[in-house]
Specification:
The structure holds two protein chains of two kinds. By secondary structure, chain A is α/β, with parallel strands linked by helices. Chain A folds into four domains: about 25-95, OB fold (Dihydrolipoamide Acetyltransferase, E2P); about 125-280, Rossmann fold (3-Layer(aba) Sandwich), CATH 3.40.50.11540; about 285-360, Phosphatidylinositol 3-kinase Catalytic Subunit, Chain A, domain 1 (Ubiquitin-like (UB roll)), CATH 3.10.20.90; about 375-445, no CATH class. Helices cover about 30% and strands about 20% of the residues of chain A. Chain A has a six-stranded mixed beta sheet with strand order 1-14-13-17-15-16, sandwiched between helices. A four-stranded antiparallel beta sheet of chain A has the order 2-8-7-4, with no helix packed on it. The radius of gyration of chain A is 21 Å and the shape is globular. In chain B, α1 (about 20-40) packs antiparallel against α9. Chain B has 15 helices and three strands. Chain B is an all-alpha fold. Chain B has helices at about 20-40, 45-65, 80-90, 95-110, 125-135, 135-140, 160-165, 175-180, 195-205, 210-230, 235-245, 250-255, 270-290, 295-305, 305-310; strands spanning about 5, 145, 155. The chains are: A alpha/beta, B mainly alpha.
Chain lengths: ~450, ~325
């Protein structure tokens, strides 16, 4: 079975808790906080002020430049504040607060469930609609989708890859989306193909989701433009570079090279559904499926949630938080961010809320490196985590750059596998950020 | 509701690897060979093993507690593995006080002065073995001959390698099956190829080690011996390599000593280079050196090259041709 060429680990996927739960609609919150920075790039600029009334789907913040994304009102009501509010890490950032009144939608949005398959728009028009809808990569990286689809001059896209891998343990939001929104996903995929001018698309799905593979294959039927590729269950299969390598056998060269340099454009499965809704139904990105799961969650669920809904409300809906030591993670257990503030609003990149309890909430005790080389074996980018972490401790930034630190995708395989419980990725991440800063400063001088 | 919220960067889950588990697996993998040794050489083997492990653990404890005055980490089992491997590299009739001297060299010279677990340049058990070989050549090279009733003969005889060195044997009729199952003279851990291969299979199954180092060492020795054997003519092209793989510490060294995490390279390419080096040096010593066996020397020599290998042999980076 196809997979990526080097490294990788096999964490227990623990998807059994939530995979059987059909997508449920989360109750509308009474008050939402909408952060202006929900994506990679410049934060959006608010275009509403305190006292304004808004309807669902109305644009409330505008992209600041090309590398940014629009933000729309997820509920209807009155804007009560545009100010600094604590985010999931407790740091204050700019947010728009809306108090809900009813559920009034923008009239341009087609809320019917009728499937619209026809799309005769020009590529430019499609990308414009996607940009207007504020769509960003929903797998967690939140890269603005219109940027990804705007192929730079001199480059050519050859293949569209839809990322239905969901290699992150515990999470099932993409899985449920593929099963329940398969028709829309396939139309969305064809729209994306049209936007970038390719005739071939591959949907990559891990082998632990055979029913999703079968379901999508059945929808595609005899059509030959889209194929579903089953991939070996191995983390980080859903990493963009790993997925491209698994599907096409082409390896994206180290930074600053991009997937387009090997002719590939990758979009997440949920993003493809969002593209369908934006282009065919005029519906901007105002909600998403979020998995709430964990060993001690009484009723794990996949919830269709409006952005801005507080995480604690979703946890309450799933039966509440266990007593004692907990870790609430925005995302999955391999790459998610632990929250110190569970009032955090759900954002565009939030694919799940994972809750660890008891000893699993903490970290193991660090001991001496025994040079077992398991981190080197596990690294999907072919790096030497033990060496990089040692160099980061010594602040040997030049040496780290020479050892290709900028290729690190922060997947966490090294730290996951380390028998000595060394927080390898903490050091590597610190080194990577510092080295990237040094490189940026150097490039600016030139 | 009383909650304590934990916050730390990703990843938030961990594999079930731990230093203790890996070390424990090495001990388990050595048990078949130890049991064969007891069957072949008698209970003396257990006495040596117990003394060796106890001295290593106690010494590490004392050094950490009273000399370094740092945290005591003997419960990570690494001193147990060192003690066990040291014992298995000794003849079955070695005086117990020499075993204690060996433990002092292993822990007190080769391991702790370098900074303890993970920092030592040389394999502690092998450094100790080589020290003992030079310091107590008589006791270290009088191997009891195995007997079938489970009691070692008082008389000391030659090992197959020693005999081959003195050209005492006719290679055409060496007892390959006996050497495979444990009926040969030698350090007590190295006598049964079958038991050692069983341990190898276990280590591979549990993903404690990869196949690269053992296969590189043994493959190199086999090719080297086959070429040498071919010059001798006849069936030696396959008998000579078979003899060299089964004789002496080839298997014990390749599977359990050369693969010591701390003193072996970090990349698979590096492991292969290191393994080939050990194979070549071992065969050179066996064929042309003063000693009948060269495995310990070869591993120690290649241990010293490991930092260099780690510096220059990099893994294949993703996306780089």
């Amino acid at each position: 079975m196809k997979t990526f060429p080097i490294g990788g680990v096999h964490p227990s996927d623990n998807k059994q808790w939530s995979k059987g739960s059909a997508i449920e609609v989360m109750e509308l919150p009474d008050v939402v906080n909408i952060p202006l920075a929900q994506h990679i790039g410049a934060p959006a600029t608010a275009i509403v002020k305190k006292g304004d009334s808004v309807v669902v789907g109305q644009k409330i913040a505008e992209a600041t430049g090309f590398m940014s994304a629009n933000i729309h009102a997820p509920i209807s009501g009155t804007v009560t504040a545009v100010d600094m509010q604590p985010n999931g890490q407790g740091l204050r950032q700019m947010m728009i607060t809306i108090k809900r009144e009813g559920d009034e939608w923008d009239e341009a949005i087609d809320r019917s469930t009728t499937l619209v398959t026809e799309c005769n728009l020009e590529p430019k028009q499609i990308i414009e609609k996607i940009k207007d809808a504020g769509i960003v990569g929903m797998g967690g990286a939140t890269f603005p989708t219109h940027v990804k689809l705007s192929i730079p001059d001199g480059k050519r896209a050859e293949i569209l890859i839809i990322n239905g891998v969901e290699c992150e343990p515990y999470l099932t939001s993409d899985y449920r989306t593929m099963l329940e929104r398969g028709q829309e996903l396939i139309v969305g995929t064809r729209i994306l193909m049209r936007a970038i001018g390719v005739t071939k698309a591959v949907i990559g799905v891990e082998a632990n989701k055979p029913d999703a593979v079968a379901h999508l294959q059945q929808i595609i039927g005899t059509a030959t433009d889209i194929t579903v590729q089953m991939l070996k269950t191995q983390y980080p299969q859903g990493g963009e570079k790993q997925l491209i390598a698994a599907v096409t056998s082409r390896q994206v060269p180290p930074p600053p090279a991009l997937p387009i340099d090997v002719g590939a454009v990758v979009c997440n499965a949920s993003t493809a559904v969002a593209v369908y809704e934006a282009v065919q139904k005029n519906k901007p990105l105002i909600e998403r499926v979020v998995t709430v799961t964990g060993a001690a969650v009484p009723q794990p669920k996949n919830l269709l949630t409006r952005f801005g809904t507080p995480v604690e409300a979703m946890i309450a809906k799933c039966g509440g938080l266990a007593e004692g030591d907990v870790k609430v993670i925005n995302g999955g257990p391999m790459m998610g961010r632990a929250l110190s503030n569970i009032a955090m609003p759900v954002m565009k990149g939030c694919s799940g809320i994972t809750i660890m309890v008891g000893a699993a909430a903490g970290r193991g005790v660090e001991s001496a490196c025994i040079k077992c080389a398991k981190c080197v074996e596990a690294c999907p980018m072919g790096l030497e985590p033990y060496l990089l972490s040692k160099q980061a401790k010594k602040k040997a930034w030049d040496a780290m750059e020479a050892n290709d630190i900028t290729s690190c995708i922060e997947c966490g395989c090294c730290q996951f596998t380390c028998p000595a419980n060394i927080p390898l990725l903490d050091y590597v991440r610190l080194g990577k950020q510092t080295v990237m800063g040094i490189i940026r400063a150097r490039n600016m001088k030139k | 509701m009383a909650n304590r919220f934990f916050v730390s960067p990703a990843p938030h889950v961990h594999s079930d690897y731990s230093t203790v588990r890996l070390m424990g697996d090495v001990v388990i993998a050595l048990l078949p060979a130890l049991m064969v040794s007891v069957r072949v050489f008698g209970w003396n083997v257990l006495a040596i093993t117990t003394v060796s492990i106890a001295s290593c653990v106690l010494l590490e404890y004392l050094v950490q507690k009273f000399l370094v005055k740092g945290p005591v980490t003997v419960n990570n089992l690494s001193a147990v593995v060192t003690g066990l491997l040291l014992a298995m590299n000794l003849p079955a009739n070695i005086p117990l006080w020499i075993v204690v001297v060996g433990a002092v060299v292993a822990i007190g010279v080769a391991k702790m002065p370098f900074g303890g677990l993970g920092k030592n340049l040389f394999n502690p058990a092998l450094a100790a073995r080589v020290f003992l070989l030079i310091a107590y050549p008589v006791q270290m090279t009088s191997f009891p001959q195995p007997t079938i009733n489970g009691f070692a003969d008082a008389y000391s005889g030659a090992t197959p390698l020693g005999a081959a060195k003195g050209m005492l044997v006719n290679f055409a009729d060496f007892d390959a099956l006996g050497m495979f199952t444990g009926a040969m003279g030698g350090s007590f851990g190295e006598v049964s190829a079958l038991a050692l291969l069983l341990g190898f299979a276990y280590l591979l199954m549990r993903k404690v080690i990869s196949w690269h180092i053992p296969v590189a060492v043994l493959g190199t020795m086999a090719v080297f011996a086959a070429i040498y054997g071919a010059t001798m003519g006849g069936a030696m092209i396959w008998q000579f390599p078979l003899f060299h793989l089964l004789a002496g510490g080839a298997l014990l060294g390749a599977i359990f000593m050369a693969t010591d995490y701390v003193t072996s390279p970090m990349t698979t390419k590096g492991m292969v280079i290191y393994g080939i080096g050990i194979g070549v040096i071992t065969m050179c010593i066996r064929l042309w050196g003063a000693y009948p066996e060269g495995m310990s020397f070869a591993i120690l020599i290649m241990n010293s090259v490991v930092p260099l290998i780690n510096k220059y042999v990099k893994p294949k980076r993703f996306g780089v041709k």
